[in-house]
Design brief:
The complex is a heterotrimer of chains A (about 300), B (about 250) and C (about 240). Chain A is of the alpha/beta class and about 300 residues long. Chain A has two domains: about 220 residues, Rossmann fold, CATH 3.40.50.300; about 60 residues, no CATH class. Chain A is built from eleven helices and 13 strands. In chain A, the strands form three sheets. In chain A, strands 6-7-8-3-9-10 form a six-stranded mixed beta sheet, sandwiched between helices. In chain A, helix 8 crosses helix 11. The longest helix of chain A has 16 residues. The relative contact order of chain B is 0.15. The longest helix of chain C is centred in the N-terminal third of the chain and has 31 residues. The two termini of chain C are about 20 Å apart. The chains are: A alpha/beta (about 300), B mainly alpha (about 250), C mainly alpha (about 240). Chains in contact: A-B, B-C. Chains B and C meet through helix 2 and helix 8 of B and helix 2, helix 7 and helix 8 of C.
Chain lengths: ~300, ~250, ~240
């Protein structure tokens, strides 16, 4: 597969704050890439650079073969963005919004109307299509925003936290849409706060922190890094005791609270953990063996829970 | 580019027409201002004061409209529409043009209503159809200049409150220090040069001329110089600022 | 309730420390002062008006007339941010919110008065004495508050409070222009005279000018207006705040 989005050593600073620190990444055509990272890791800056909203300080990037810095207009003809805030006009109706964006993208009047009607139906918004957007619920706005990105199909779609604040049912609908889009060959870069979302949708996951890629791979590959088949989760309520346990177990990445998670593949590893705790006379409140999740990956990579 | 500008200006018009408080302020404000200033200054200055006042009222729709029009842009920043447009293959020039055309349409619409109402207390066009046409063209050109200024200030300003104040205060000053309000000779001598050069004065004098009440050529040329110089410069800088702005 | 109100006023005043407030309370009154000084000086002096004593009360009236706009603006903002609802869920008398708003507006109104009296000094404005200065300020603020109560009612009941706030300056235009604020009675056509004579802006500005000059003041017309408006809008505001 060829890379449709390719960035080389992309850097961007705001004053003394380094948001992107020589970030390199290649996204294969037709894949769904989940971009994870704690708040402030540089996710939004990255999306803003790739969508031509921000100009990187150094480095280069191409999207669909066009250089981001020298041909931003050509890049814009190949991308669509749905951001954290529904970027639609409150005073217009849902249908008028879609027709408006379609016409801006050079669709004829009838074509724009047809597309709008089709998308409204697909997203279950037909009944409310002719009401002003200000009467819409948060979920409806988000759907309309995504629909606005699909009025004219683009090969690369950026979804910046598309489901933040949505109820579970609306989230499922959006997930189905993303899967549909993927099956039509659209390349999607998705940022999300929900690890489950990345697990469900993404072919590949990229974890960034402090403006750099800290891990990359499929969900399974990343999970294998924390503990292959199984991890041991230890919960200790007393902060003093917890700190002592972290010291004897040789952990530092977990931060101030939450469970301590250790790789525990096989009986021997588990027994080792238990013996260490016993020797230090630490009685955990809870100790469990389970399969690793992306949460564990996140904690071990960034020291912060997502 | 033209069709994009028209689409964008169509949106500006729709938003305006669907926000009742905006419509009320836009159409009622000039009329109220006119009827309440008229008896006061009519008594103080001259008998056919409405011929002087009506042009000023129409032009002040544009100057006092600068702050609300900047507020509209900030509403788009907040809603994310501004950024969405910037990620689409639309040229910065057509986006800026769309904003200007939309505001100019509003200003001319208000002008038509205000001038129609001004006929009640005795306003008249006495220079024929060409004068009427020229009158509204000058209003449109002046409106485009004001919108460019407000666009540039809004695109480069630090925050909405500062931008609104930075636009509202000069608009008020320009209103007072214009010969549309009282004749130049009624001002104290030291301020008369300022009054003469004020674009609101030159445009007022041009409009008064076009209604048949004075010279046309000189004030018209001065107004065009303002529009091309200040308006053109602000429009060009707005196009640049538009591409740079990240919200 | 006194304590709650005090806390709320403190918060309101801190929220007032913005560029917008600085422009509203200091810059804009000075701009109007300068503008009208330049425009009206010759025209009125020709008619035998003592311009230095005449103008500052006029601009004070204008500043007082704009106070309700910010009342409505702030109440609208509190409503939209959910702050008003939060206050209602707490064991605070719901009227404290209203009273705190008015208290804040009273303090805010004093700022342009001080600024304008200082600016007036430059063109020859003088008070007859300390009592006349105190009376001047009290009357002006009381006048502003009676209209602020009306604005509070609008803000609490309007579906779109922030934009209706900006519409509130509309009623001020006829009131202030068709009064003796900017010109003596003799300027207006005769048929308008009854309207101008009864206009609250006329009776209050006349009282302010008389107070400043130390001349006898006819107290009844301004007090009747202020008490009447405050009762009318006050009752409506109390009802609206209890219900909303």
């Amino acid at each position: 597969m060829t890379a449709i989005v390719e960035l080389r050593h992309l850097s961007k600073s705001f004053g003394t704050t380094v948001a992107l620190d020589g970030l390199s990444l290649a996204i294969p055509e037709g894949s769904v890439v989940g971009l994870l990272g704690p708040n402030g890791a540089g996710k939004t800056t990255l999306i803003n650079c790739l969508t031509t909203l921000l100009r990187p300080d150094s480095g280069s990037a191409t999207i669909a073969g066009h250089d981001l810095l020298t041909e931003p207009d050509k890049v814009r003809a190949h991308i669509a963005v749905t951001g954290q805030f529904a970027a639609i006009d409150e005073t217009l109706t849902g249908r008028e919004n879609l027709v408006f964006f379609g016409r801006l993208l050079r669709l004829g009047k009838d074509e724009a109307k047809d597309r709008a009607g089709g998308l409204l139906e697909r997203f279950g918004l037909s009944a409310e299509a002719d009401k002003p957007v200000k009467t819409y619920s948060g979920g409806m706005r988000r759907k309309l925003d995504l629909a606005a990105s699909l009025v004219v199909p683009r090969p690369v779609l950026f979804l910046d936290e598309p489901t933040t604040g949505l109820d579970p049912v609306s989230r499922e609908t959006l997930w189905d849409t993303v899967r549909d889009l993927r099956s039509t060959g659209v390349t999607i870069l998705l940022t999300t706060q929900y690890l489950e979302e990345a697990d469900q949708l993404a072919d590949r996951i990229v974890v960034i922190d402090h403006g750099k890629v800290v891990a990359e791979g499929t969900a399974q590959e990343l999970k294998d890094r924390v503990g292959g088949g199984a991890v041991c989760e230890i919960r200790i309520a007393d902060p003093g005791v917890r700190e002592k346990a972290m010291a004897v177990l040789g952990r530092s990445a977990e931060g101030e609270d939450g469970p301590i998670v250790l790789p525990a593949e096989g009986v021997e590893a588990l027994a080792g953990i238990v013996k260490t705790l016993e020797a230090a006379k630490i009685e955990p409140d809870d100790l469990a063996l389970r399969k690793p999740t992306l949460d564990d990956v996140f904690r071990s990579l960034t020291g912060r829970p997502e | 580019m033209t069709s994009t500008a028209l689409l964008l200006s169509g949106r500006t018009m729709k938003r305006f027409l669907r926000t009742p408080p905006l419509i009320i302020i836009a159409f009622v404000f000039p009329v109220v201002l006119m009827f309440t200033i008229l008896p006061l200054y009519g008594g103080l200055i001259e008998d056919d004061y409405i011929q002087r006042l009506a042009p000023l009222i129409v032009l002040s729709t544009a100057t006092f409209g600068m702050a609300p029009s900047a507020a509209g842009l900030y509403a788009d920043f907040r809603a994310g529409i501004f950024n969405r447009l910037r990620t689409m293959p639309i040229s910065a020039a057509s986006t800026v043009a769309g904003r200007i055309v939309g505001e100019v349409l509003r200003i001319v619409a208000v002008a038509v209503v205000a001038i129609a109402v001004a006929h009640i207390p005795g306003f008249r066009f006495t220079a024929g159809p060409a004068g009427v046409l020229g009158f509204f063209c000058v209003v449109a050109v002046f409106g485009a200049m004001c919108t460019s200024v407000s666009l540039l200030v809004a695109l480069t300003g630090p925050d909405e409150d500062t931008v609104q104040s930075a636009l509202g205060t000069p608009a008020t000053l320009a209103f007072f220090l214009s010969s549309g309000f009282i004749p130049v000779t009624a001002f104290p001598g030291w301020i008369q040069p300022v009054v003469r050069v004020n674009p609101l004065s030159t445009a007022s004098e041009a409009l008064i001329g076009l209604t048949g009440g004075g010279p046309v050529a000189a004030p018209l040329l001065q107004t065009l110089a303002w529009a091309v110089g200040l308006g053109g410069l602000c429009a060009l800088l707005s196009v640049r600022a538009y591409r740079r702005r990240a919200r | 309730m006194i304590h709650d109100t005090g806390v709320l006023i403190g918060r309101n005043l801190r929220l007032s420390l913005t560029t917008r407030s600085f422009f509203q309370l200091v810059v804009s009154p000075l701009v109007f002062f300068a503008g009208f000084a330049i425009v009206l000086d010759r025209l009125l002096t020709l008619r035998g008006v003592d311009f230095g004593q005449f103008l500052p009360p006029a601009i004070v009236m204008m500043a007082m007339g704009l106070a309700p706009v910010s009342t409505a603006f702030f109440i609208g903002r509190e409503r939209q941010s959910g702050m008003l609802d939060r206050c209602r869920t707490m064991p605070i008398n719901s009227l404290s919110v209203l009273i705190a708003r008015l208290g804040t507006d009273a303090v805010r109104s004093l700022i342009p008065i001080v600024v304008l009296v200082a600016a007036g000094h430059v063109i020859g404005f003088r008070f007859a004495g300390v009592p006349s200065a105190v009376g001047f300020a009290l009357l002006a603020v009381a006048f502003a508050l009676s209209f602020c109560l009306g604005a509070a009612v609008v803000a609490i009941r309007s579906p779109d409070p922030e934009s209706s706030a900006s519409a509130l300056f509309l009623p001020m235009l006829p009131l202030i222009n068709l009064s003796t604020v900017f010109a003596p009675m003799s300027v207006f056509p005769d048929w308008l005279e009854p309207v101008i004579r009864i206009n609250p802006y006329s009776v209050v500005v006349d009282a302010l000018r008389a107070l400043a000059a130390g001349q006898p003041v006819s107290w009844w017309p301004p007090l009747a207006w202020i008490v009447g408006l405050s009762l009318f809008f006050g009752l409506a505001a109390v009802r609206a705040f209890r219900r909303a």
